[in-house]
Structure formats: C-alpha cells, structure tokens
Amino acid sequence: MPWPFFRFLGRRLAALVVLALGITFVAFVLTQLVPGDPALTALGPVTSADPEAVAAYHAHWGMDKPLPVQYLTYLWNLLHGDLGTSQLSHQPVLNDLQHAIPATMELAFLSIAFAIVVGVPLGVVAAIRQNRASDHALRVVSLAGISMPTFWLALLALYVFFFKLDWFPGGGRLDPGTTPPGQITGLYTVDAVLHGQWSLAWDALHHLILPALVLAAFNVSLITRYTRSAILEVINDDYVRAARAKGLPERVVVIRHVLRAALPSVVTVLGLVFANVLTGAVLVENIFAWPGIGQYAYQASIELDLPAIMGVSLFVAVVYVTVNFVVDVLYGVIDPRLRLT
Amino acid sequence: MHRAARVPRLALPAALVAVVLAVVAVVASTAFAAGDNTKAEGTLVVDTSFVVQTIDPQRMFEPTSQIAVKGMYDTLLTFRGQSTTPLPWLARSWKVSKDAKTFTFTLRRDAKFSDGTPLTSADVLFSYNRVINLKGSPSFLLAGVKVSAPTKYTVVLRSSTPNPALLRIVPNPSLGIVNSKVVKANGGTDALGGDKTDKAEPYLLSHSAGSGPYVLKSYNNKTEIVLEANPGFWGPKPTFQTVVIRNLPAPTQLLNVQRGSNEIALDLSAQQASTLRGKSNLKVITNASANLFNIDINTDPKISEVAANPHIQTAIRYALDYPSFVKLSGPGAVQAPGMIPTTFLGHLPPTARIKRNLPKARAEVKASGIPSPKITMYYPSELTINGISFATLAQKTKSNLAEVGIQVDLVGKPVNSFLETYAAGKHPMSQSYWGPDYPDPNDYLVFTPGGLAANRVNWGVAKDPKLAALAKQAQRTVSDTVRASRFRQIGRSMNQRAPFFPLFQPAQAIVSSSNLTNAVLGVIWPLDVRAVGTR
User: Which residues of B touch A42 (CB under 8 A)?
Assistant: First the structure.
C-alpha cells in the first residue's frame, strides 16, 4: 500500500478517536440535562418514594458519584472494553450490542443490496428513456417510495404478505421458540449456514426478506433518482458521443462509459443510504419485532438508560466514520483521477 | 441525442434483475408458506409488547416479567382467574392473629424445586429476606414485615403495623420462592446489605431456580422468553410443553393472533379487539381493567392559587364529562365510582359516581372570585395505557373545563421528567393514573391525606385530619366486612372533597385462539400461563 493511503487511513482513525470521545461527552451531557431520574420509573411509584431504595438504586448504578467522576469512570472502563451495564436490560451493554448490531446489520446488508441491485438499473432505464412513459412512471413510483412513511409501508406489507397471502412470517428473526444458531457473526442466516443448519438458515432468510424489502423501498427510490440525474449529466458529453461515433453498441456505451462516469455520484448516495437504513430501522424493527439497534436505541432513550445511550452513540459514530471512509476509498477505485497517489 | 432505439437492449437486463429478485422472494416465501404457524405442537405463544427489566423474581415488578416468573416460581398463596380471594398454594393453611400483625403459614410437604430439592421454610425465609434486602422495585411489598421459619414447614410473617392486606400481597409473583441453595451458590444473599452484595441476577437471567410447572429455556429481553415444562413438577402438569412469550407491537399482534393457533394477544386495545368479534377461530374478552385514570389537583396555593381554590376544585369535579372519557376507551370501560376500582373490596356502587353538572360547575367558578381562572396541567406525553394516550385525555380535559370558563394550558413531558416534578408535588394539575400493586383497598390509601399520592398534591394530614383518621382506622381493620364499609365511607367523602377526580377504568382485552381455555387477564399478573389449557 502507498504511504499516502496510510496517512489518509491514520488521519481517519485519529478523527474517529476524537469523534468518539466527543460523542461520549455530548451524549453524557445531554442525558444529564434531560430532567428526570431513571430510578423513578425503574423502581415504580411506591418504592421510588422510599429514599433508601432510591439511594440504593443510585449507588448500584454509580449515579451517586459527582458527574465528572461518573464520566471519567465511564471513559476508564471504556478503555478496558467495558461499556457498562444497561439499566434497562440489567446486562452488559457490550453483550446487548453484540446481539443488536448483527440483527440490524443483517437487515441493512440485504436491504442495501436490494436497493442497489434494483435502484441503479431502474435509474439507468429512467435516464436513457428520459421523458418517455417509462421514465415518467419510474419517477412517479420513486416519488411515492420516498414519500411513503416507513411504518405505514411496514404495516401494509405485513397485512398483505403475511396476513392475506401468508408468504412471509409475521415478525421476529426466527419462528417462535426456535433456538438461534450458535453465534459466530451474529447474522442468523450466515451462522446457520456455517453450522450447516440449512432449515434454520431458510427460516432466518424467510424472516429477513420482508423487513429488508420494506427498509429498501425508500432507498430504491433514492438511488433510482440519483442514478437517473447522474447519468443525464454525462450522457451527452463529448466522450460519450465519441464512443457512439466509433460504433460501440449502446449497451457498452452506457455501461462502460456513461455508468462509470456517473458512479461516483451514486456511491456518494450510498453513505446517505446507510444513514437512511439506520434511521428507518427504528420503525421497521419495531413493527417486525426485529431486535436490532434501532429498537435498543429507542428504548434506551425513552428510559434514560445512560450506558446504553452511550454505547449506541459510539456505535453510530464508528459506523458513520467507517462508511464515509469506505465511500472515499471507493471514489479512488471507481475514478483513478481521484486516487490519492 | 442518444439513440433511444437501442435502449430496450439495456432496459432488458435491468428489468430482468428486478423480476428475478421478485421471483426469488416469492419462491423463498412460498417454500415456507406455513410461515409463522410452523411452531411445534404443544407450544403456547403469548404475544405482548415487552415491559421487562429482569426475571430475577425478587427484583422484578414488570408485567412481562410477571408472566414468566409466575410460570416458573410458586408463591405461598395464589389467585384464580380474576378473583382476588387468596387461595392455598405452597401454603396449605394459614392463621392470622386478631390484630392482623402475625401471619402463620403451614407449607405443604410435597413441593420440590425443578432440581428435585424439597421446598422448605428456609427457602421462603431466604426469598422474602432477599426481596426486603435487595431494596428493589418489589421490596415495598414486605415493608415493615419480619420473616421467621420456626419449623421446617412453618413460616411466620410479623408486621410492625396491622396489615390485613398481606394475604393479598403474598400471591404476588415477586414473592415467588427460589431454591435458596442454588441462588446462594450463584452469588445470591438474603443478608442485610444485599443491595450491594447480591450477585445472583446474571444467573437468574439464564436459569430458573423455582418449583413451578415451567423452567427457563431462554431469555432475551428484546425478543422472546421461552419456558419449558418442568418434568418433575410436584403439581398438576401444565397443558403446554413450551411457552413462548414473544415481543410484538399491538398492530402485529392483531395480525398474528388471527393467523396463529394456540396463540394469545395481550396488548390489543378494546377497539382493536372488537374488530375480531365474530371470528370463529378467536375468543375475545373485554372488561374493565383495574387501572384507574384520574386527574390530580394541587392543594398548595404556592404551587397554584387557582388550583388550590376549593371552589375551582369543585368546579372541575362537576365540569368533567365522565361518560365521554369512558367512550374514549371503548366497550368494556366503566366510569370509576371512586378511587378504588370496581374489582376490589370497598369500592363504591355505580350510584355513587360523580355526575357532570355544568350549572353547578359554572357557579363554583363564579364563587371562586377568580375572574379568568387559568391552570397548567402536566401529562406524560408519550405514555399509552390500555390503548389510551394521555395526550388525548389531556385534550379532552382541556375542552371540558373550557366549557365552564377554566383555561387549561397543557404541558406534555416524557415519563421520567413528568414523574420527577410530579413526585416533588410541583404540578398544579396532572393527568394521572394508578395501577394496582396488590388487589386490596389498602393499596388505595395512598390517596388519603398524608398518603404517597396525596403528598404529591400537598394534601397532608392537617388538611383533612378527620379523613386521615378514618383512613388509619380502615388500614388496621381486620374484618373484610368492616373494611369494605369503612372504605366506602372514605370513598364517599373523597368524591366530595378530595383533590382527585376519578375518571374511568379503561377497557382491557385479551384475544386468544378459540381452542384455548383459561386465557384470562389476571388482576396482578397479565396472564397465568400455567392455567391455560385446551378444549
């Protein structure tokens, strides 16, 4: 690998550390600023009126110490790989995240793959058939996809494909009472395959498809629209006309010349797509009872579960920095002019 | 311009990709057309929106935890169905002293834990002391109670004050008996200071240590809790080999229960449940919950002179349109006759309900001497109980009071923030609610002067010493007949002058597959899975 690449990587890693530190600080301060004592909901109305019980709760969760001490203790524990214990689940946050993150990732990967595989070709079609009936139809459909509330689409999908047609199950990652595969990656489909549990893998895939498709709907529309406009920007450029003048088949012109030039814009959108998936996951996970990071974050914030909020914030920070890094690297792969060397 | 004539050659692969994906999705799904219904025979599925922090019995007090813990751990006494009459369970008999301070339980001798260890008074002693010393959510159940075990099969509870409610407290799943040897071996302690030294919770989140008909197979507080039949259970065998308690939101429960078999949905609103009536594969039960929605008003003029004005309080009492609140909740809901729900001893008859009287309310506003009364009302903004949103109730209250010239400014706050200022007695007026901790009128003494809830509206003993004395007398009364009479007397007085306005008991619904029996909502625990059977 060339040195500039390592310098670039080093800068990004340093930024990640600073960002993560900042995120923990902001999350900590914001959670403290929200009025409300988690002990009141955790202990219930009667026990929370007992100062001794409240004091015991505060002492148990380290909330009896001064705020700077609490924060520094958190950082110290973080350095040792300890993200604390969730007040909500009574389990180590790291343990919770080890289950929640793969659940969301499994959903996100399939959803993004579907969005790319469908969105990019549709965008190409819309662009090269600009202002024709198919273009208009695709624009209307993509507008509908972007405008449709995710939770409504999720309920509609459940009603049609689970309740009416019985094509897909009604929620969860596996059938009720099914023992999950031993955790290797945390992705049930992958883990089941790695363990050779084929029926379990199908069960996991079967549960995965519908929420992934719902989550993909918004992004299919987004990618279609971005791809269309990116292609329209270059489709009449001189080098494209030259390629056509050489007698190259239109398919080759579009794929090798037009699409390649348009791809950096599409790749930029992928960063957005990932953000959309994480945001949309909160609603989709709730409707489909998918135990991912979205549900975890929602519950943590409602209950002011500080260790869980900090853990999720750290995860999101790492993901965003990583995705941006990957997108930057992809620019170089797609367009040699952008390579750092 | 590009040559549009060649376009179809490119459009074709794109269209093909989309078609192939769709076909794959359909094929994959049809391959599993049986879908969610492929669960093994002998499996009961309970769908509920999880409210669970732990399944350590001595730490838990949440509805979902209660379902699981009730299946795995036995209590000295129990309730059947929706009855609140204590019945023998681990204790085959009991005696109560005349002053209601000493309770002696004689244990059955054939009860044993799932590992085969006999259950004795030492386990009861350990479990109860652990509840007390952990200082967790359920510790208040045994406040002021000392436990002893004079013989291997005798347990004595001594209360520092007369406590006739204790027989209705003992069936609470939080007072489930754990295998003391197992829990001790895994870091548990019943000693003073247990809040700092007890380390058994992680063990009890992955194993059960009870004597109930079920043992824990797996626990995930986000997805599902799976229980398996305890092969060595000392009592009658449960119908189902496996019970899956599954976390689903209400809209998904509505769809699932219609497709499934041996399935129960616990969180449908009465309106949602009523859409399922008439379906032959389902059984729908709706009735009045023991939860009680009410409005609290502060009696401290320093918090709000308007709210503390007795004429304004009376005006509000008669300005509220109680029947329309009931309608909001749907079929099965009832107007609360007083602060004690209709399901419990000492509740008022329907004739004692407060009736709307707008002329009287307007006259009281006038008598207050406040030209344009204005009050701020707080409510927990994101909270929904039994399908009723507090935001909707708050809007209704505002419009009711506007009719008599009282302007209400609404302030919605997240539950935690709401509770903090509410508990500190800082709200001029609150849209509030109370769920029973145990099915006994003593649980409602919190609303009498100087009680927990009364202090939140600064209604101390000095503000109504006569009522406070009556409450103290009722608390110590042993005879249920006399208790009922005293609590009714208190209820009538409160309906006239207390700073609480009881609105309604919401409708609650349980929907189950029609082949299931005993699928009923309990008064304390949402569902007793050990009792559910099939036709």
Answer: 53, 137
